[in-house]
Amino acid sequence: MKENDIRFAKLLILVNGAVPLALLVWDQSHHRLGANPQNFLILTTGMMTLIFLILTMAVTPLRKVTGWNWLIQFRRMLGLYAFFYGCLHFLCFFSLDRGFSVSSTLTEMVKRKYLIVGSTALIVMIPLAITSTNGMIKRLGGKRWRALHRLAYVAAMAGVIHYYMQVKADVRQPLVFATVLAILLGYRLVVYLRQRKPPTPSPAVKPEAAT
Questions:
Q1: CA angle at 93 for the pair 177 and 129, rounded to the nearest 5°
Q2: Per-residue pLDDT for 98 more than 80?
């Protein structure tokens, strides 16, 4: 893929990633968020966090299956969008639901365990966002950087569990996310096990009998 095409694709992802936020702002300003706008904002930003987390994790398998190595160029932007919407999700809850009260937020977290799980997902994403630059990759070294960024698996699993625990009746959407995540994690597990498997020694060639 040419450099100009990659730049255009990055711009496309940047613009489209901001579309959900623009739509939320537009609907909010026109009072079109339904009967419970606070809940709608919290749920929608949480959903976008999960979507971008899943998209981020899908880059590597898709790249290896298709051979499109240029896909790796977009993983960082997708991950940063996941962190951005995760922060927005928490901010909506902290401001609209808890009125910026730290004590009320902590009390609510003790009562509702899924909030602790969701907060864990967001906290785990902080070092991922901080170390997403090329400078941090060089400073940490490729091996340590890759090990650190496996925390994305933890963030994704915690996010899905948080969503499942929060939903009280219809769990179909959380199960869809869980299924896709299980496939992505399963792929990585298979690759890891294959890499650890020792190569099968080739059978010794018997010398031909003398004639």
A1: 65
A2: yes
Count: domains in the chain: 1
pLDDT (0 to 100) of residue 97: 95
pLDDT band of residue 6 (cuts 50, 70, 90) is confident
Range of the domain at 63: 3-181
Helix (H, G, I), strand (E, B) or coil at 35: coil
Question: Would you say 95 and 124 are in contact if contact means Cβ atoms under 8 Å apart?
Answer: no
Q: Do 145 and 137 meet the contact criterion of CB atoms below 8 Å apart?
A: yes
Q: Are 49 and 89 in contact (CB under 8 A)?
A: yes
Contact, 10 vs 76, CB < 8 A? Answer: no
CA distances from 11 to 23, 71, 73, 95 (A): 19, 14, 12, 31
Query: 206 lies in a domain?
Result: no
